Amino acid sequence: MSQANGNGSGNVRVEIYDQTYHLRGSDPEYISELADYVDNKMRLIAQQAATVDSLKVAVLAALNIADEFHVLKRKYDSIATDYNERAEQLAGALDEVLQDGRRVG
Question: How far apart are CA 71 and CA 27, in angstroms?
């Protein structure tokens, strides 16, 4: 489990996979959450992998996190594209209604 301790000056001490890291950041709680996520991911990978080499565990965890990121990015891009297409359709429909209203009025 990762742990983070801030000293109030933007420095945060976190522990990931039994290693201590001193990081800088404006939000120690967020840095702690990220460190905890990486620590948990590495421990899960270590349980599943046939290696105790921490570098290999870190690389496998990084690949797993990169995969999660790309899956979510594809979903986001798809949703954003659908949203933009729908917004353009609605704007076009609104323009038609407004133009028809000017012709009638």
Answer: 27
How far, in Å, CA of 13 to CA of 35, rounded? 10
Residue 13 · residue 32 · CB < 8 Å: no
* Biggest alpha carbon–alpha carbon distance for the chain: 78
Q: pLDDT digit string (tens) for 29-80?
A: 999 999 999 999 999 999 998 888 999 999 999 999 999 999 999 999 999 9
Cα–Cα distances in angstroms (integers) from residue 101 to residues 89, 90, 92, 97, 105, in the given order: 18, 16, 14, 6, 6
> Is residue 3 within 8 Å of 22, Cβ to Cβ?
no
